[in-house]
Write a structure and sequence with these properties.
Blueprint: H1 25-29, H2 32-53, H3 55-64, H4 74-77, H5 85-94, E1 109-114, E2 124-128, H6 129-146, E3 153-156, H7 164-175, E4 179-181, H8 190-201, E5 205-208, H9 210-222, E6 234-237, H10 246-256, E7 259-262, E8 275-276, E9 284-286, E10 291-296, E11 309-316, E12 325-328, E13 331-334, E14 348-349, E15 353-356, E16 361-363, E17 366-368, H11 370-378, E18 383-393, E19 398-406, H12 408-412, H13 415-433, E20 438-442, E21 457-459, H14 461-470
Helix pairs in contact: 2-3, 6-7, 8-9, 9-10, 10-11, 11-13
Ligand 8LQ binds at residues 116, 164-165, 238-241, 243, 262-267, 272, 329, 331, 352-353, 355-356.
């Protein structure tokens, strides 16, 4: 089959038939049961390789009494213990800098990257030349599926230091034969400069976070430029929810007159586009022949049936330097197996990834996701584009307050319009979330915008509890 080998060794000159919507037709459209059989065989190869090359996996699987050759079905694979971020950090602390799950000699490392988080010990990625090529090929293949083609300009509008997202998009664009523009983000004044460059270059593809695409559109308008003038065909997003949230996706599609594609999983899992929509299919397809994804019950780490919710657990089928085998994400999503409009036979996350389970909070027994609040606000005319979510404990129960900006037009219409909007927001939040939120409307541009991932939740409960403990309460 089309270049499905382990270790992978992609032909750098390969391109599909220009009229084909698929990069690898057979791999993308095969009978899913047949694919599952091939995945099981590949899992055995990857596990045997990881066992031979890494004390980390040897220890883990010896303790669990599991051997690669015992994996005969996908159900057998569910017995393999999961890998957590914490374990990776510990492995790197004990075996610096890349951990004892590095499966190639350090001399093979071609690129060093790292996690973008600001708290705790960061994780280092040591990526071999072979893996770098594999990542580029995988991303090019998925970007082909989004409708991008050789010769297109791809504008990377995301931070190019400690963020794998930008690098994956960049090397995918290069392998696809695009004109890759590693513009970046995050420096002072850079968004206004992006507006100028976008107007000059008219890229077919733009990569960023959804929050930053909204910010960029605001700045374009301030500069007197209609974002449609950029001529973008495809906006592909990763890093946070948004690309599969209808109100946000439709708003961005409308602003830019372009198609939005949601993609992205975790930096450890690069090629992170292995969960990605396509030109004709919304939500995220799970490109199972690249990274095998299980949506699992977070308590048992076993797959839930299609149609149900769980946390994604990822297994690299094509990485050899730091392969992740059953890495648990801690995110929440639900998956389905249906006919996809693009003809690919992969399972799909119709609403994308909702967010991290840790980010979910409970208000009077209801589970609430920050992304659900963003979804409601973005769907309401008059919303000014930013908000904050405040969780506090007034009495014995957690309380939810939302501070939401109104837009300039509502401001111009006077205090009654603002009040009416606040009532609409409150009613809509209570209808969708099932709990009452106290809503405070605030002036346009009250909150700073992000050029990365949005951080909107202010959790006052710990403060409240620590005060209470001090009082002996
Ligand atoms: N996360 C990432 N992509 C997401 C998406 N499309 N929808 C919802 N949540 C998403 C390098 C890539 O951009 C992936 C990435 O952002 O990796 P990070 O920085 O390691 O962050 C991973 C987390 O971002 C995931 O666990 C999701 O919570 C979120």
């Amino acid at each position: 089959m089309e270049e499905w080998n382990f270790p992978p060794n992609y032909n750098k000159d390969y391109f599909p038939d220009p009229n084909s919507p698929y990069w690898f037709r057979a791999r993308e459209t095969m009978d899913p049961e047949k694919r599952d059989d091939l995945i099981v065989a590949r899992i055995r190869d990857v596990m045997a390789y990881a066992y031979d090359h890494s004390p980390f996996y040897q220890r883990k699987w010896d303790e669990a009494g599991i051997k690669a050759k015992d994996i005969r079905t996908l159900a057998d694979f569910e017995e393999v213990p999961v890998v957590t971020k914490q374990e990776l950090r510990e492995s790197q602390a004990k075996n610096p800098p890349f951990g004892d799950y590095l499966c190639c000699p350090e001399s093979d490392i071609h690129h060093i990257h790292g996690t973008s988080g600001t708290t705790g010990r960061p994780t280092a990625f040591g990526i071999s030349r072979r893996d770098w090529d594999t990542i580029a090929n995988n991303h090019a293949r998925i970007m082909w599926g989004m409708g991008l083609r050789p010769g297109d300009t791809v504008f990377v509008a995301a931070i190019l230091s400690l963020y794998m997202g930008s690098w994956g998009a960049l090397i995918g664009a290069e392998r696809l034969g695009c004109k890759a523009f590693p513009f970046g983000a995050g420096a002072p004044g850079m968004t206004a400069r992006a507006v100028t460059w976008l107007s000059m270059m008219k890229p077919a593809g733009l990569y960023s976070t959804p929050s930053y695409a909204l910010r960029l559109a605001e700045v374009a308008r301030e500069e007197g430029v209609d974002p449609k003038e950029f001529g973008i065909k495809v906006l592909f997003f990763s890093g946070e929810p948004g690309g599969s949230i209808p109100s946000i996706r439709d708003k961005i599609q409308d602003i830019y007159g372009a198609k939005v594609v949601d993609c992205g999983t975790m930096a450890e899992l690069t090629p992170w586009m292995h969960a990605s929509g396509s030109a004709d299919t919304e939500g995220m397809l799970l490109w199972q022949d690249i990274v095998y994804t299980e949506v699992a019950d977070p308590n048992t780490n076993r797959r839930v049936p299609y149609g149900e919710q769980g946390t994604p657990i990822y297994t690299h089928l094509e990485r050899t330097s730091q392969p992740m085998i059953r890495m648990v994400s801690g995110d929440l999503t639900h998956w389905v197996m249906e006919d996809n409009p693009c003809g690919r036979t992969y399972p799909r996350l119709p609403k994308g990834i909702y967010g991290r389970i840790d980010d979910m909070f409970q208000i009077r027994g209801e589970n609430v996701y920050p992304s659900a609040i963003a979804e409601v606000l973005e769907g309401l005319a008059g919303y000014g584009g930013e908000h904050r979510i405040i969780i506090s404990r007034g009495g014995s129960m957690d309380e939810l307050a939302v501070q939401a900006e109104f837009d300039q037009e509502t401001a111009n219409n006077g205090p009654d319009a603002v009040k009416a909007l606040g009532e609409r927001v409150e009613a809509e939040l209570s209808r969708v979330l099932g709990v009452r939120a106290r809503v405070v409307m605030v002036e346009p541009e009250t909150f700073p915008r992000t050029d990365f991932k949005a951080q909107r939740v202010v959790d006052d409960r710990d403060l409240y509890q620590s005060l209470n403990q001090k009082r002996g309460g």
